[in-house]
């Protein structure tokens, strides 16, 4: 499994101040865990949360789950100390909130000399300026691996409303998807706040899947099963993918450049997508076997 094929169906935030949540996460079915020092932690609790989160990362026990520390902004009184502690702890990634310019990423990268080479940068995309600069941000550093949509901050800054169809943030989501895919980054969708509303979450996940997101950020363990299900290829997807690959290979062997399956044309681009789905299913199987 490479950084590109690693599943990120479910990316669970947990407050870095809550020892119980950090412990519980060791056995939760999340593909990735964001140990939060920013918005989920009160100012009074931030220094203790920093120690707790970094100790948890050093101690490990999270199996194949990807570990990300969300630090406070480098323009806050906690940001620099968070970054130094996170670099020393060596998570899979450090998530910078409120990224608005490419310089936010290059500035962070310059301060990460002490971090292990494998510690990547993730960027919270959640400000209006960040949306306008999404392409330049996506290209800012080879260390950057993933965009995380921060739709709560975005709705606040746009003075918009949360609506079921998410029309108020659709332009922003589209700009970030375009930028991420153009530069080979992963991208995960924003949170669904009503964490007991399973039907609403499912609809939001389906919309995110159809738009092209790799997965969804979550705030409660009750949301994991839906995200893991919706962002995985279905058995029908995989059966069709197998058929497309076999039909195309047979057509190629006969010297044809295209195949026809059930009255539909199958070209190399359809086969590339079929192979992507098969690789994604294999990566999910590998991850789940490693976690069980
Ligand atoms: C939303 C919550 C405050 C609810 O907490 P609580 O009432 O304690 O939930 P439960 O009693 O139902 O919890 C059941 C058990 O599950 C554990 N738990 C709960 N949440 C988590 C979690 N996120 N990770 C791991 N474990 C969790 C509890 O400890 C219970 O365990 P047990 O003791 O064994 O019964 C709470 O879920 C919460 O704080 N969620 C995270 C909120 C958060 O991180 N917010 C910040 C990120 S969202 C954001 O900032 C997005 C972005 O920046 C933007 O702008 O959009
Ligand atoms: Mg935010």
From TrEMBL:
<dbReference type="InterPro" id="IPR015813">
    <property type="entry name" value="Pyrv/PenolPyrv_kinase-like_dom"/>
</dbReference>
<dbReference type="GO" id="GO:0006107">
    <property type="term" value="P:oxaloacetate metabolic process"/>
</dbReference>
<keyword id="KW-0460">Magnesium</keyword>
<feature type="domain" description="HpcH/HpaI aldolase/citrate lyase">
    <location>
        <begin position="9"/>
        <end position="221"/>
    </location>
</feature>
<protein>
    <submittedName>
        <fullName>CoA ester lyase</fullName>
    </submittedName>
</protein>
<dbReference type="InterPro" id="IPR011206">
    <property type="entry name" value="Citrate_lyase_beta/mcl1/mcl2"/>
</dbReference>
<dbReference type="GO" id="GO:0000287">
    <property type="term" value="F:magnesium ion binding"/>
</dbReference>
<feature type="binding site">
    <location>
        <position position="126"/>
    </location>
    <ligand>
        <name>substrate</name>
    </ligand>
</feature>
<feature type="binding site">
    <location>
        <position position="126"/>
    </location>
    <ligand>
        <name>Mg(2+)</name>
    </ligand>
</feature>
<keyword id="KW-0479">Metal-binding</keyword>
<keyword id="KW-0456">Lyase</keyword>
<dbReference type="GO" id="GO:0016829">
    <property type="term" value="F:lyase activity"/>
</dbReference>
<dbReference type="InterPro" id="IPR040442">
    <property type="entry name" value="Pyrv_kinase-like_dom_sf"/>
</dbReference>
<dbReference type="InterPro" id="IPR005000">
    <property type="entry name" value="Aldolase/citrate-lyase_domain"/>
</dbReference>
<feature type="binding site">
    <location>
        <position position="153"/>
    </location>
    <ligand>
        <name>Mg(2+)</name>
    </ligand>
</feature>
<comment type="similarity">
    <text>Belongs to the HpcH/HpaI aldolase family.</text>
</comment>
<dbReference type="Pfam" id="PF03328">
    <property type="entry name" value="HpcH_HpaI"/>
</dbReference>
<feature type="binding site">
    <location>
        <position position="70"/>
    </location>
    <ligand>
        <name>substrate</name>
    </ligand>
</feature>
